[in-house]
């Protein structure tokens, strides 16, 4: 089998099964695991998959820049945002992450809501300017332009001084085996700090992020409280995640 044929077969298998197990694929093709791993490395370098221990998962499309992500799966993100906004109670302290789904969430909070929002995202802060009863605490640090969020030691230290009722988390990948992940190491550190300071963490899980992975692990999936998923998400799509004990809110 030619190299290009092998690589196409790997991608076809990944689309069909949602994951690649290198040992199983090498056995079925009669090839060495070294050959399969070499192909996986080459495909990962092109951004076509994410290597994980023992094989590969689909690469998350949510690692595109902010402007591109703003146009990705917008109807699903808006539905998730509305469902998440309905979870908020007056008087609560909220962490709202950066990202396009969280931006939609901020815009959908009721204008009559009295609450405190702590965020490391200038985009989220600006979305709440017209909410007269929402106090906004903006966490500073180095601006990570890809996600338009503050990162670094200063941001983490400020987060550690707050105790929040809810944290609405944005991620680029959600996998029962690979955990919650994102495309930047510093951003992963900030998200872990936010999780540690929140009574509940709800992951805003648009369809393209389910069963995908990115290079930097935030935490195991069961470190979160639950997922907010798009309308029409099937039980089968989330079975491996709910089996870990995650609660589920359907938009």
Automatic annotation (TrEMBL):
Keyword Coiled coil: no
Signal peptide: none
Gene3D superfamilies: 3.40.50.1360, Winged helix-like DNA-binding domain superfamily/Winged helix DNA-binding domain
Highest taxon of source: Bacteria
InterPro entries membership: AsnC-type_HTH_dom, Carb_Metab_HTH_regulators, DeoR-like_C, DeoR_HTH, NagB/RpiA_transferase-like, Tscrpt_reg_HTH_DeoR_CS, WH-like_DNA-bd_sf, WH_DNA-bd_sf
Assigned keywords, A-Z: DNA-binding, Repressor, Transcription, Transcription regulation
Domain HTH deoR-type: 3-58
Stored PANTHER family: GLYCEROL-3-PHOSPHATE REGULON REPRESSOR, HTH-TYPE TRANSCRIPTIONAL REGULATOR SRLR-RELATED
Official protein name in the record: DeoR/GlpR family transcriptional regulator of sugar metabolism
């Amino acid at each position: 089998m030619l190299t290009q044929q092998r690589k196409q077969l790997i991608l076809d298998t990944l689309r069909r099964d949602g994951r690649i197990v290198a040992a199983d694929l090498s056995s079925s093709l009669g090839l060495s695991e070294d050959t399969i791993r070499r192909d996986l490395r080459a495909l990962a370098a092109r951004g076509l998959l994410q290597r994980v221990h023992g094989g590969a998962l689909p690469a998350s499309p949510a690692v595109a820049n902010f402007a591109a992500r703003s146009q990705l799966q917008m109807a699903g993100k808006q539905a998730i945002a509305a469902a998440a906004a309905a979870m908020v109670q007056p008087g609560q302290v909220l962490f709202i992450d950066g990202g396009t789904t969280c931006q939609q969430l901020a815009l959908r909070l009721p204008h009559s809501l009295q609450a405190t929002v702590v965020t490391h995202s200038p985009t989220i802060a600006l979305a709440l300017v017209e909410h007269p009863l929402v106090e906004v605490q903006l966490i500073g640090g180095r601006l990570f332009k890809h996600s338009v969020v503050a990162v670094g030691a200063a941001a983490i230290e400020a987060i550690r001084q707050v105790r929040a009722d809810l944290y609405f988390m944005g991620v680029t990948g959600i996998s029962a085996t690979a955990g919650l992940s994102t495309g930047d190491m510093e951003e992963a550190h900030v998200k872990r700090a936010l999780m540690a300071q929140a009574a509940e963490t709800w992951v805003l899980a648009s369809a393209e992020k389910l069963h995908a992975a990115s290079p930097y692990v935030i935490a195991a999936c069961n470190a979160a409280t639950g997922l907010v998923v798009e309308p029409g998400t099937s039980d089968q799509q989330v079975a491996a995640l709910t089996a870990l004990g995650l609660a589920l809110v359907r938009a």
